[in-house]
Amino acid sequence: MAEEAIRIENVTKRFGDFVAVDDVDLSIAQGEFFSLLGPSGCGKTTTLRMLAGFEVPTAGRILLEGEPVEKVPPHQRNVNMVFQSYALFEHLDVEGNVAFGLKRKKVPKDEIRTRVADALELVDLSSRSAARPNELSGGQRQRVALARALVNQPRVLLLDEPLGALDLKLRRQMQIELKAIQREVGITFVYVTHDQEEALSMSDRIAVMSDGRVAQCGPPEEVYEHPNEEFVAGFIGISNLLEGRVESGGRVRIGEDCLAVPDLGDGHPEGEMVQIAVRPEKVAVDELGGEPYRIEPDMFTVEGEIESKVYLGVGNQLTLKLGNGGRLVALEQATYRMRADEQWEIGQRVRIGWHPEHCMVLS
Amino acid sequence: MSSRRFWDWFIFPGGIWIALLFAVPLMLVLALSFGHVDDFGRGVYGFSLDNYRDVFDATYVPVLIRSVAYALATVILCLLIGYPVAYFIARYGGKYRYALLAALVIPFFVNYLVRTYAWVALLADQGLINNLLVDWGFTQEPIQMINTPYAVIGGLVYGYIIFMILPLYGSIERMDPSVVEAGKDLYGSPLQTFIHVTLPATQAGILAGCVLVFLPAVGDFVSAQLLGGPDTYMVGNLIQDQFFAASNWPFGSALTVVMMLFLAVWMVFYLRRASKGEAEVL
Which one, out of A36, A137, B174, B242, has a CA that is 20 to 30 A from the CA of A280? Predict the structure, then answer.
C-alpha cells in the first residue's frame, strides 16, 4: 500500500448515551479515493466531522500523515471540507469564496490570484468569477465549494454528500468529473455518501458503515461481489437471501435441494445455518419445458412461477415464487433478440437458475 | 363583478381612518410649522421660515446633536449587548429558544413609562442601589447616577433593546451553521470566522436592529425626562415643551417636521435595503 494519509485508531464518539461511532479502525492511503458508505445515522458523517475537527473523538486517535490531530481545531488542520449544503459565503463573489482560505493563511496577493484562477479553471468556472453564489445554479455552486476547498491544496479533501442536492443527470456527470479532478490533483479524497452507486463508481475503496461500526472495507468489486454480512449484501444492491444448512463436502441444503457453494470455505461446520445471497442480475429465468435459452448446463436450478413483473425498459425486474414458498428477485436484461415487454406472463411456470459460484455466504 | 374588485373596496375603511386621523393631523402640523404665535400664545397659520431658522439656532443645535449622539450610543450598546444574547438563543437555545425569547419580550408588555420609573427607583440618590451601597459601606454619600447621560442612555437601551434582539435572532437563526464551520475549515480562527463569516451573514439583522432602535431612540423623551436633567435634554423633550409648557405650537411643529424628515431619510434607506432582501423585515 502507498503511504498512509489518514489512520483512524479505535475511534469512538458518543453523544450522551448515543454511540455515533463505535470503535472504528481505518487506514486511508495517500491519493486514495475512499468512501464512507451507509444509511443515515450510521456514523459516516460523524467520522468525517472528526477528520475535519468539528467533533473530538470520545476515545481513540486520528493520525494525519502520522501526526495525531484529534485535538487540533479545524482551522489548524491541513484538511478541507466540501459541505453538503455547500456553505458558500453569500456576501462574497465566487472569487472571494475561493480566495477565503488563502487569505486566512496570509498567502501573498499575487499567488492568491493565480491559484484562485487555476482552481476556477479546474472546475470550469473561470467565466463566473465575479458572480454571487445566489446567481449560480446548483451544479455551479457545487463547483465553487469544490474549488474553495481544493485551492488550499489540502493533504486530504473531505466531501460530505457533495452531490446530494443535484438532480440525477447532473449527479452522474459530476461523479465522472470529481473522479477526473481527483486523478488530476492527486489529493486523498474521503467521500461520504449513502448512494451505493456513487460509491461503487468512484471509489478506490469503500467502508460500509452500519450502527457506528465498519461492516466491511474493501475495493468496490470486493464489497459488491463478496459482502461479508447480510447488511452489506442488502445495502449495496439488492440481494436474494436464502436460508440454508451446511452439509458435508462444501454443500448447502436449501429446502429439498442441495448445492455446492464454492464461497463457503472452511469456516463453517456441518449443520450450521447460513444465509446464502444471490444478486438479482445473476439469476437466469427460462420457460418451463422449453429449450434452455438463458440457463446454462452447470447452473443450480429450481422451479417457480412469475409472481410480478416490473417493466424497466432496458429489462424486467421479476419477482419469482419458488416451490417451497420462498421468493427471489431476478433482474433480466432485454437483448437484441427480445424486447423486455415481449416476455413473461404473470403466473407463468418457469425454471430458475444461477451459477453456484455466484452464491455469497453471509455470516 | 369579479370578486377581486369586490375585495378592493375593503381598502376604504382603513384608508379613510389613516387619512383622517393620521395624514390630516400631520398636514396641520406641517402647516402650523410655517405659522407664528399671537399675543395670547395661540398658534396662527401663516407663511414664514422663522421657526425653521430657530430650529437650527445655536440654542437648539446642541440638543439635536445630543439626541443623535445618545441614539447612536444606544444603538451601539444594544448591538453589543443584544448580539451575544440573540446568538446564544438562536444557536444554543435548543428547545428553550421560544421560552427564552418570551422571557425577553414579556417585560416589554409593561408600559415603557412604567418601566422607566422602575429605573428611577433603582438609580435615585435615595434609590435601591445607592441605599445598598451606603448600607454596605462602599460609599459615604450616594453616588450621582440619576440625571446623568449614562442614566438616560441606559434607559434608552433598556427601552428599545428588544427591537435589536428580535431581528438579530431572526437572521442568526436562519444562518446555515455549516457556513461558520466552513469559515473555520478554511483556516479562520474563531475571531476571524466571526468577523469574516458570521457578521456578514447576519448583516441584514444587524441593519434592521440598528434602524429599529435608532428611530424611536432619537425622538424619545421619556428616558431623558425621568432619568435625566437639564443637561440631557433631547429633541423629544424640546418638542414636548413647545406643546405643553412653552405653548409655542408653531415652533414645536417645525421641530417635529425637521425630525421626521431626518428619520424619513433613515427609513427610506432601510426600506430600500429590506426590499432588496438585505435587511430583516420585522
Answer: A36
